[in-house]
Amino acid sequence: MPIHFSEADQAAYFYYTDDSGRNHVVWFEDTRSLFAKVQIVADRRLGGIGTWQINFAMPQYPWVFTHLLQIRKV
């Protein structure tokens, strides 16, 4: 099943059909969509960002933050 990326929404998605024949679209975070969101934080010099990730399934996750932001643990 191919993964698509919406430039307008800056988000990844894919389509699938379930066992009952119903069509679905699933939107999810990937490196590109995460980078776009963190870039907004950096560009607008926002005071901070909160995030979490289950099982660190995206190995690029820490890189996106350390590349664009100065990390300060409090």
Name some characteristics of this structure:
74 residues, alpha+beta, three-stranded antiparallel beta sheet, 2 helices, 28% helix, elongated
Task: Give a short overview.
By secondary structure, the protein is α+β, with helices and mostly antiparallel strands. 28% of the residues lie in helices and 22% in strands.
Question: How would you sum up this structure, described in words?
Answer:
The structure is a single chain. The protein has one domain (4-68). It is built from two helices and three strands; from the N terminus they run βββαα. The protein has helices spanning 31-43, 61-68; strands spanning 4-6, 11-17, 23-28. It has a three-stranded antiparallel sheet. A hairpin with a 4-residue loop joins strand 1 (4-6) and strand 2. The protein is elongated, with a radius of gyration of 15 Å. The relative contact order is 0.16. The model has no long low-confidence stretch (mean pLDDT 86).
Rg result: 15 Å
Number of helices: 2
How many independent structural domains?
Answer: 1
SSE string, helices as H and strands as E:
EEEHH
State the distance separating the first and last CA atoms. 42 Å
Instruction: Identify the overall geometry.
Output: elongated
Please summarize the sheet with the most strands: 3 strands, antiparallel
What's the pLDDT, averaged over the residues? Answer: 86
